Predict the structure.
Amino acid sequence: MPKPTDTFIDEVTVSVSAGAGGEGCVSFRREKFEPRGGPDGGDGGRGGNVVLVADRNLATLLDHRVRPEVRAPRGEPGKGSNKHGKAGEHVVLRVPVGTMVYDADAGEDAAALADLSEPDARLVVARGGRGGRGNANFATPTRQAPDFATPAKPGESRRLRLELKLLADVGLMGFPNAGKSTLIRRLSAARPRVGAYPFTTLVPSLGVVEVDDRRFVVADIPGLIEGASDGAGLGDRFLRHVERTRVLVHLLDLARSEMENADLMADYEILRRELGAYDPALLERPEIVILSKVDLVAERAKLKPLEDAFRALGREVLCVSGATGEGVPELVRTMLGALDAAAAAEAAESDEVAS
């Protein structure tokens, strides 16, 4: 799993420049008994490439925020005695798995250049320039002393926009203070950073849940509010991390219902509306509804009408307390069942497309 980090950066713009090629050499052999030796100028080396590599040990694009310009070394020039210049070394930029790569100058609606969603996936984003050819290449029976070499080519330069979308099996969603951070602490070894209201979780956090011989990844998505799909509370930036999750878990805060007389069904509908406004396909994902902080409810019997309302919609609904652990084992089993069902559906769809 990615190492924890104090600064989560999920979008950066970087300028990359590959190395220019080395110049070709103009040289003639000069030896003791060969005063009129032939041309022996070597070729210049190729410039270094700039390469992106997906690294499973990274969880942020911070390194590229503090180093926004990258240049690869140029190739060395050719020399006499047919010595070719050394190629410039490639510059490897490591990014988290799940990084989308865009041309920063192509506009917001341009398609991605690549989706580095697999560990060790590589993409050459700027190719080094070709080295110049030395004059030894141009000797012919009728042109025995060429006094020229071809020039080196410059390396490619471009601006890239890197956008990280977390890879997780399950995404925890809900309003601020719904109990997502407490729950992910209970489910896994993740220790999300939290801050003051209205956004208790400052950045998305990943945790690994292990049960028997199974393991899956859960993402704690920072709290959403109404208007999140339009950017309210930076919700559009948080919602991008839901795109890759296979199962969505909606946490509804029973404490809000108890103390503020909040309508949790209305809260759920707001979350669904924001998901649909951001990407309608998200509404088709398998869902689990959690009535969170059940330990704060004195009269459990009054929860039954709400549970029945969600079951009538075809939703799995569980009463859970991240603080005490109540309902967590059942939740893990339900998550595993939903993930298995999602995997089976994906396999069936893939077979249908193949046939």
About this structure: The longest helix spans residues 328-354. Helices lie at 62-66, 180-187, 235-239, 254-260, 264-278, 304-312, 328-354. The domain at 1-164 is CATH 2.70.210.12 (Spo0b-associated Gtp-binding Protein; Chain: A,).
